[in-house]
């Protein structure tokens, strides 16, 4: 299976690296060439455009910041839609709007290409360690065909539904819950410090009650006042909340 990965931020680079390690032939593209060159040393082929990366591949994965970046990479000049063969699959792992997911579904179908939404849950270090949770949605046959790819990047796959946009709805709701937890934990820790309760003792209680990596990781950062290195840009979190409200409307 020949694969392309377009978008080589911390998440996209980790995906590409794990796919190379799994034995796939991987072609990569990133607007900043230096990020692609780093992966070339590990066995990836570097393309000069999304279309070139997608040409000849069985599946092209996009991991990009937002709707605009995905639209440019897919439908812009030398976009992947122009290079992807009939029958090949575009797998979008980006956190995008349900509206764009519907648009991608229709446009790829018109080109006799397949499309899956497959957003992921996990911080960059989870992506590095191949411990992401992958949440695809789309036709069962296409999901099954891409399952080995999901196995190479994550620790579990949870199919959200038969319609691609449903995966994006699930991802946005999941990010809403994580953002809400961070807000709640921040306020709780601030209150407990004023009450003289040791924050890590409270964290132990919450870990026993909820038993989640989200509680352990984000709760631990807040209890430790350790907010660097940053794993996720605040502007992207705000983007996700706006997309959630748009989906709810």
Please render the helix and strand layout as text.
Blueprint: E1 2-6, H1 10-21, E2 25-29, H2 33-40, E3 45-46, H3 50-54, E4 59-62, H4 67-75, H5 80-83, E5 89-92, H6 98-110, E6 114-117, E7 120-121, H7 124-128, E8 132-134, H8 140-153, E9 154-157, H9 165-195, H10 199-210, H11 213-224, H12 234-248
Parallel strand pairs: 1-2, 1-4, 2-3, 4-5, 5-6, 8-9
Antiparallel strand pairs: 7-8
Helix pairs in contact: 6-9, 9-11, 9-12, 10-11
Count of alpha and pi helical runs: 12
Query: Cα-atom Rg, whole angstroms?
Result: 19 Å
Oligomer: single chain
Major sheet characteristics: 6 strands, parallel
Using the coordinates shown, work out and report the CATH topology of the largest domain: Rossmann fold
Helix percent reads 55-70%
Low-confidence stretches: none
Count of domain modules:
2
Straight-line distance between termini: 40 Å
What is the name of the CATH architecture of the largest domain?
A: 3-Layer(aba) Sandwich
Mean pLDDT: 96
Q: Element order, helices and strands?
A: EHEHEHEHHEHEEHEHEHHHH
Q: Reading side by side through the largest sheet, how are the strands ordered?
A: 3-2-1-4-5-6
Sheet-strand content, in percent, reads 5-15%
Categorize the overall geometry: globular
Q: Structural class of the secondary structure composition? A: alpha/beta
What is the CATH top level name of the largest domain? Answer: Alpha Beta
Number of strands: 9
Within CATH, the superfamily of the largest domain carries the name NAD(P)-binding Rossmann-like Domain
